[in-house]
Specification:
By secondary structure, the chain is an all-alpha fold. The protein has a domain at 7-12 and 25-80. The protein has helices at residues 7-13, 28-41, 55-68, 70-80, 119-122. It is elongated, with a radius of gyration of 26 Å. The chain starts with 6 loop residues before the first helix and ends in a 9-residue tail after the last helix.
Length: 131
């Protein structure tokens, strides 16, 4: 089953969408269906089929909608109107998403370079090594 919204379903949530101005190449319905395609097929924006149009144009508009809160309202309406049902099964992040400064990793600090050969002279250990 392909997750796409029809024209009649779109009319139920059209009030949440920003009004299109000027010479636009993609309707809001096309953009919304592109979002649903990427979500359903778990592909990158560059992987959008040509029928949706230029992926960068679509990504730019979606990014603008996300920042302004339009996407939040649209997906709330889609679920309230029971047009689509969204179930989040997993959430994952990797190191490409989150960068941590080396000081933020709680890594053990280096101690003196030449520790004493006799541990009694050196006193208690300055750190504990946990392999």
């Amino acid at each position: 089953m392909v997750m796409e919204i029809t024209e009649s379903q779109y009319q139920q949530i059209e009030h949440c969408m920003p009004r299109q101005r000027g010479n636009v190449s993609h309707s809001n319905l096309q953009i919304l269906n592109a979002i649903l395609y990427v979500t359903e097929h778990d592909c990158k924006w560059r992987g959008l089929p040509k029928r949706f149009g230029n992926w960068h144009t679509i990504y730019t508009r979606i990014n603008r909608w996300a920042k302004s809160g339009v996407l939040q309202k649209v997906f709330e309406q889609l679920q309230q109107q029971q047009i689509i049902r969204i179930k989040i099964e997993t959430v994952s992040m990797d190191s490409t998403s989150i960068k941590v400064h080396p000081d933020g990793t709680d890594a053990l600090k280096k101690t003196a370079r030449n520790p004493s050969v006799n541990p009694e002279v050196a006193g208690p250990p300055r750190f504990i090594w946990l392999p």
